[in-house]
Design goal:
Layout: E1 6-13, E2 24-32, E3 35-41, E4 49-60, E5 62-67, H1 83-98, H2 101-117, E6 120-127, H3 130-140, E7 143-150, H4 164-175, E8 182-188, H5 196-209, E9 213-217, H6 221-231, H7 235-241, E10 249-253, H8 259-267, E11 271-274, H9 276-281, H10 289-294, E12 299-301, H11 314-328, H12 337-351, E13 369-373, H13 385-392, E14 398-403, E15 406-410, E16 413-414, H14 419-438
Parallel strand pairs: 1-4, 5-6, 6-7, 7-8, 9-10, 10-11, 11-12
Antiparallel strand pairs: 1-2, 2-3, 4-13, 13-14, 14-15, 15-16
Helix pairs in contact: 1-14, 2-3, 2-14, 11-12, 11-13, 12-13
Bound molecules: zinc ion.
Zinc ion binds near residues 66, 68, 252 and 304.
Length: about 450
Amino acid sequence: MPETDLGIRCDYLITMSSDQPQVQRDQFIGITGSKITEVGPWKNQSASTFVHARNRAVLPGMVNGHSHLAMTLFKGLADDLPFQKWLHDYILPLESKLVNPDFVKTGTELAALELIRFGVTTVCDSYFHMDVAGNALDRAGLRAIISECITDFPAPDKREDPGGDFRILDQIKERYSKHETITASLAPHAPYSVSDDLFRKSAEYSRKHGMLMNIHVSETAFEVQQSLEKYKKTPVARLHDLGVMNSPCVFAHCVHLTNEDMSLMAKCNTGVIHNPESNMKLSAGTAPVIQMLKHKLNVGLGTDGAASNNNLGMFHEMDTAAKLQKLAGHDNSIITAYEVLRFATLGGACALGLGDKIGSIESGKFADLIIVDLSEAHMQPVHNVLSQLVYSASGQEVCTVICNGQILFDAGDYKTLEPEAIIKNSQRWRDNIQKSLGQ
Ligand SMILES: [Zn+2]
């Protein structure tokens, strides 16, 4: 048996492999190459590199199940405006004018810095120029599903090149077909922006290449109303009837679902990514998460793009997800800290079709895990580490981030990225965006 490359003695270990809340004390994790090779009680095991996570919790890396990373460059640009004004006067015109490969590279790198700092090891990203985003995320060492956005409107990467989105899709499909951490996927944007024909074409592509489809679904009441008027069915029923849901799918948002929608999704094993902070900020509504669980849907959590959040960390998202359901359900026992921690880890992994590879700390799975410091005042005293992680932590407590067996962040240092250069580039883009707004 090869020697363990990295061994971690864990003061508190949360593997997420149990359905019931479980925190184990004084455990050991062995990592060899990219995989977890041992999980069990501490018995003086040895390893080439050894870490003693004293007064720290070790848990699976967070899975940010829905985002548009490059939009980080639009963060804080036009907040607190009515939704239609935000979208049509700012975001869409700026995207059409400015989004190019350098924008996507800089925005994705800036986002990767934030993801890593706040303990995210897997992200499902959809945007334009995903060949460029894939390069940036690969360099960062993150695990990512990169979804090329497909729409009927002239997206930035097919303005001068109609069909450019499917060409980029072909490229990333080839490049990442055997890649361990980057997976290519497609994102037909939403039922209101994609025609029946384009949905059929996307579903055929997905089926042929076994690719996940990542779609915004039933985000607003307006969208559902429009669908009922135009197609005489809900967005989910339309996607079902078009055959889209016969392919592997994950639906983001799902704020306005009927019971029939949820039954169809359960039947088709369609995953859900819940984005509570974006839904609150854009005033979209409260997703029926408790009913989703009753329908046995795989529920994950996402931040959505930073323009509608405004951060990419999952600790805030867990706190919000729990409190929003408690408020909406008029019952503070309706959801537990452990359940939302599950959304942010194994639930998200399962919703994205990665449940057998990541999302929990188990022998044979990829070594994606984080170490969280419990020693500061706001994390003490530790009566219940699960409560502390969900309701007290901000993500700044993450002190070590490991993805695919590789240390990406430790004791304040990034191991794969150069923050100064990335932040300088993002400031250059801030100036470009401001100049463009002034014109
Ligand atoms: Zn989105």
